[in-house]
Design goal:
This protein is an alpha+beta fold and 185 residues long. The chain contains three helices and seven strands. The chain has one domain: Peptide deformylase (Peptide Deformylase), CATH 3.90.45. Bound molecules: nickel (II) ion (NI).
């Protein structure tokens, strides 16, 4: 079932999401619904709060990028209970980001290129890994959603000032997009 995407202004996007256990009710169906929703909206990542559930579940599908980044061919995974443990601040990169919860907006965001994250995989095996490259970027964006943050929170100063009216339009539901959304009106 395709779920509506909660957009900026919905309180659930600002909550700290909870860790879950493998026996979380109807987890398999929920993840299947997230997959279907991500596919329909043509995104590369989706976090559970974006479909209204404040739990630590994220899907990342980098297959659409594999033409340019062959190292991500077949990369399509579910992450349970992810947490960013450390940021390597020695190197940062500024890249364009967009988000299904902020339709139509794309902005450059500066982030560390390398992070250490922990998570459980599809088989509920624990991982504790340093991650770099584009995956580290996407993980930071998606895992931020679990801590009540969206990418525009990472933009500061004059550029943030210039974004204000656009963010306000999003909060007020003044946008169009081609997937199902749940707007705070
Ligand atoms: Ni996002």
């Amino acid at each position: 079932m395709i779920l509506p995407i909660y957009t900026l202004g919905q309180p659930v996007l600002r909550h700290i999401a909870e860790d879950i256990t493998p026996d979380y009710p109807d987890l398999e169906q929920f993840v299947a619904d997230m997959e279907e929703t991500l596919e329909r909206s043509e995104g590369i990542g989706l976090a559970a709060p974006q479909v209204g559930r404040s739990i630590r579940v994220v899907i990342i599908n980098l297959e659409p990028l594999a033409d340019d980044m062959p190292e991500y061919a077949g990369f399509h995974h579910t992450f349970y209970n992810p947490h960013i443990e450390e940021y390597d601040d020695s190197e940062t990169e500024t890249l364009d980001e967009g988000c299904l919860s902020l339709p139509g907006l794309h902005e450059r965001v500066k982030r560390p290129t390398r992070i250490r994250a922990t998570w459980m995989d599809e088989q509920w095996q624990p991982h504790d890994e340093w991650v770099d490259g584009y995956l580290a970027r996407v993980m930071q964006h998606e895992f931020d959603h679990l801590d009540g943050k969206v990418y525009t929170d990472r933009i500061i100063g004059l550029r943030k000032q210039m974004l204000k009216s656009k963010l306000n339009d999003l909060i007020k539901g003044r946008f169009t997009c081609n997937y199902k959304v749940k707007v705070k009106r």
